[in-house]
């Protein structure tokens, strides 16, 4: 009934060969560095969660008076453990985002200006989303 014309199929195959100009595959060493950091961050998060659980146990076992004569108040330990946990959690999330960008082919592309981020910056901070110029602009 409506056979495809050769012109249509030719333009379709040409389209599949195209890539967005800014997309790039993350280099294997960047992926490896990212995976390593993500692993470290997850270990740190796990440790922080355990510390938090430990403080929670101490707190629930403690009397209303949380002043331990030998040490710092549990509320201090608690907020410290919370801060460490939150930071570890944010780090994991940020690295997971970077890993997702590596899969999507947008790793190393500045999220603000669209230019490529300096590989040296990415080596130091694989989860960087801004190029140095945009980061400096704040
Ligand atoms: Zn930028």
Automatic annotation (TrEMBL):
Pfam families (UniProt xref): zf-dskA_traR (PF01258)
Zinc finger DksA/TraR C4-type domain span: 105-137
Database matches in Gene3D superfamilies: DksA, coiled-coil domain
Chain segments carrying region Disordered: 1-26
Biased composition range(s): Low complexity: 1-11
Gene Ontology terms, MF aspect: zinc ion binding
Annotated keywords: Coiled coil, Metal-binding, Zinc, Zinc-finger
Superkingdom assignment: Bacteria
PROSITE patterns: ZF_DKSA_1, ZF_DKSA_2
ZnF bounds (dksA C4-type): 110-134
Coiled-coil segments: 31-58
InterPro entries linked to this entry: Znf_DskA_TraR (IPR000962), Znf_DskA_TraR_CS (IPR020458)
PANTHER family linked: RNA POLYMERASE-BINDING TRANSCRIPTION FACTOR DKSA, RNA POLYMERASE-BINDING TRANSCRIPTION FACTOR DKSA-RELATED
Record's protein name: Molecular chaperone DnaK
